[in-house]
Specification:
This protein is of the alpha/beta class. It has helices spanning 13-17, 23-41, 84-92, 94-103, 137-145, 157-166, 195-198, 202-217, 240-249, 261-271; strands at residues 58-64, 70-77, 107-114, 130-131, 181-187, 221-227, 253-255, 278-280, 291-294, 297-299, 303-306, 311-314, 323-329. It starts with 12 loop residues before the first helix and ends in a 6-residue tail after the last strand.
């Protein structure tokens, strides 16, 4: 059977609908009508869903500056054969050293280790951590400072100090407090010999150790040196490495040739006083949103924000017991 259809466009839907409905022709017409109406009338519109802007999150954090600055003091004593007299002299000045720390109002902890790599940086004495609550602390420290003078070279003070601070074996547990400043004091009549362990530039390697410690605690890590500072004065050679590290960290250099170790002890104790300048934040502030107050007074300068490891960092430490507050809008990605 042959079916002939008009060649003109089908526009009169009423006329098409009037066509016979029976048989193949009726089925085809109904299909054509339906498809024409659907394809000609339906439009698809894609719309983005309504997005509501999240309200800003405003955060206020408060801190109180320490009443007493905390400091952990690590003595690294040269334990080679030429150091017996020097150990005895510094031991005799232990009381003056502790008096200076006490007079400054420092909450201190003191440990003593040697320059002998075989000792692995383990603290000496019993108790091995001296504090202001230790019974007869001046006697305990005086005893600990006399570490003996029977070690064979090399005298690797920078290496053993690194071991003492890392405390991988846990023997020095409790010495390095999380929020205390650090002061390392090297006492030697020679220079450091840590090349085997710290590479060709041990001084730079130890400065990296101190930088890591500062990042962890938010407190200054300094070095002082009681060493031969003039060639041939009272030892075989000057301690160039110890002196370089002390100068790089803002510590002091005292001559091992001094006849009055109480003066040396007083200078070292005074250099140990450090109040915190860094206060960790719980979130990342939006750029330009932070407002800082100290004791209720707005402070517009003298501080920065660390956005990598969020913290409020002062150029100069706020005074003891100062009330510190920071109000800021939380950065969008953090919110």
């Amino acid at each position: 059977m042959r079916l002939d259809f008009p060649t003109a466009e089908v526009q009169d839907t009423a006329r098409i609908a009037a066509a016979p409905s029976g048989g193949a022709l009726g089925v085809f017409v109904r299909w054509l009508l339906a498809s024409t109406l659907v394809s000609g009338c339906v439009e698809y519109v894609v719309q983005a869903p309504d997005v509501e802007a999240a309200p800003p999150v405003v955060v206020e954090e408060r801190f109180v500056q320490a009443a007493l600055p905390e400091v952990d003091v690590l003595f690294v004593m040269d334990s080679t054969g030429s150091m017996a007299d020097e150990q005895a002299a510094l031991s005799g000045a232990a009381a003056e050293f502790l008096d200076t720390l006490g007079g400054l109002g420092l909450a201190y902890q003191i440990g003593v280790t040697t320059t002998d790599p075989a000792d692995e940086g383990v603290l000496r004495g019993r108790p091995w951590i001296v504090t202001d609550s230790t019974e007869a602390p001046e006697q305990v420290l005086a005893s600990a400072l006399q570490v003996g003078a029977d070690s064979a070279p090399p005298a690797a003070g920078l290496h053993t100090a690194s071991l003492a601070l890392a405390d991988a074996q846990g023997f020095n547990r409790g010495f390095r407090r999380a929020e205390a400043g650090l002061h390392v004091i090297f006492v030697s009549d020679g220079d450091d010999q840590s090349d085997l362990w710290l590479g060709l530039d041990p001084a730079s390697a130890f400065l990296t150790v101190l930088a890591d410690d500062e990042a962890r605690s938010g407190r200054a890590a300094r070095v002082s040196a009681v060493v031969v500072d003039v060639p041939g004065a009272c030892g075989s050679r000057t301690a160039a490495r110890y002196i370089a590290v002390a100068e790089a960290t803002g510590g002091i250099v005292q001559s091992l040739c001094s006849s009055d170790f109480s003066v040396v002890a007083g200078a070292l104790g005074g250099a140990a006083a450090e109040y915190p300048t860094r206060f960790p934040l719980g979130g990342t502030p939006l750029e330009g949103s932070a407002r800082v107050e100290v004791d209720g007074v707005r402070v517009d300068g003298g501080w920065q924000l660390d956005r990598v490891d969020p913290a409020l960092v002062f150029d100069v430490a706020p005074a003891a017991d100062a009330a510190i507050s920071i109000l800021y809008t939380l950065a969008t990605e953090a919110a």
